[in-house]
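note to self: the first set is below, dont mix up w the second
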Amino acid sequence: MLSIGEVAHFTGVSRRMLRHWEEAGLITPASVDDSTGYRRYSRTQVGRVRAISALRSVGFALAEIVDLLDHSQLTEERLVELLRAREEDLLSQINEASTCLTEVRTRLDAIRRGHEIIMSTIELSSLPPLRLSALRATVSDESEIGEAISELLPRVRDQLRNHGFTDSDIVLAYDGAADAKSIIVTVGTAGIDDDSDLSELAMVEIDDSDRGVTVRFDVPPSDIGDAWISLDASLEAYDLETTGVYRQTLTPRGGVILQAPVKEQSAEC
């Protein structure tokens, strides 16, 4: 007879897991001392423990393992059913993982290409003030910016189109400096007279900056968040980092211009 510690040693299955499997009805000690609670196992049960461990390693649920190892209930039909179900689960996981891998590789390639574009087009210069006819929204987190833009951008474009402004840059601006708990999202366009009948749009002013960075993409980055991350990484070579207000200009020809004020990198503590 073997103690629970010896079974754990021979099989690599922890004592806690052996007790868990006992509670699930997968394995029952050959004997249990009534006074001490010590469990004793027969040597033949080592093989059952290893079989359970092997089935768990390929993802079978405990209830399924009970079926697989209980020969009084397990028929060939049930065995095939369980194995085919597990096969389908594994194929689904493989397909899902393959899709995720493709997406990860695509994103890595986009980041590499974006970094190359940033390094070849980066400009360090002052940024002019902007006076925008715009709509604004306030969000509480960067993850909500995309949804705000999705709501504001079509409305701004409709206003411009309805009044004959079909060839205008559209500026997206993100300002989180005023309130650490919120971000103001602005979508608008510059260069329109105050007396233009754009009733839904309000005038918004964005301050200039003596020090700023500009990068230009002829084709929009696949992920604008990654582009900002790559821009900050590129600025490390200049001991600089971006600060608000962040500007993203959408050109009529489909290009994207990223701009932001810059400051010296914060010293690490």
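second set (the one i keep forgetting abt)
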Amino acid sequence: MNSLIAKNRSGITILLCFLTALFEGVDLQAAGVAAPHLIPLMKLNPAQAGQFFSASTLGLLIGAPVGGWLADRFGRKIMLITSIVIFGVFALATSLAGDFQSLVAVRLATGVGLGGALPNMIALASENTRAERRGLAVGLMYCGMPLGGALASLISLTGGADWKSIFYIGGGAPLLLAPVIALTLSESMRRLRVAGAPHPGLKAFLGALFGADRAVRTLLLWTGFGFTLLILYLLLNWLPSLLIGRGFSKPVAAMVQIAFNLGGVAGSIGVGWLIDGKQRGVVTIVSFALTIAFLTALAVMPAQPLIAIAIGGALGVGIMSNQAILYAIAPWCYPMSVRGAGIGAAVAVGRLGSLIGPLVAGQLVGSGHSASQVLLNVVPILVIGAAAALTLSFRLRGEAPH
């Protein structure tokens, strides 16, 4: 059994990380799925509803850097399992929350677990795969998140469903997966080779992020993550409302959201395969250029359902391709000893963008902007993220993770 696992280390690692990402994707959109039933049931006012939506994202800001840092000290596998158990237990606990305070507390704790899992999934998928296939490995892993989001959106179409069911799925499934990971997932081979080396302290960690020529690449990576995730979460939270504002029905808006997530699956896999080639810069240019084009098209398209679904799917391909590019090149930026913390810090900055994105849209809508104007006004934000990602991609030409 052990020899079989060792022989298929890369495939097993990608599969288990994909399943973890799938359940993360479900839980990241669980609040939105449950909200129409949960908010009136608990009599939440708009301010309380906003805190409910943002609690897990705030937890992600904490969990990502802490989970990555602890993984550099104690191992990627153990921290991935710990993070899965945390977000599984507290996702289930959400179904038991009886008041606003307990609801926010369990969502915050869920977010800590979700944040701790992500940098370790990226590191494990990259470090247990051959150098020439690391981008594809990360892309295959990451496509689980939009697929999980599509699953959550499908649940939202069943309007009579018990709001607790999404948390049963988002919490129970990871807890069943955790012992499978404990038995079959291998620790990062590259990390094992340096396991005997002393773990760098805070000063060395800051030096790895900002010393020598890494300050520029760190800032570019953070800018790329922050601005692209701002757009992604703006769309995840506001796309149905913006489409309804453009005259579409709720079922059509839900179908566009599903197409957006399924397009993201295709984008993650496709760009993961392409990013391993010699034309990384070209792939990055094309990915961001198409995203900008389809975001603009979504703002000016005629109010025809089939056109909206097609553009929504194409936009999902672009948006998730951009994210997959950043996740794939993030391990290139840092040495092995601080890679988990480095990726975790970048993920945390990205989550800060995901907190700001829905607020930006809310501010624009509240100030009287139409749905089309909101979409057009955020295009420059995506352009900034594209410029950062493209610059970083070209700076890293010819390099590979240590």
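remember for set 2: The mean pLDDT is 81.
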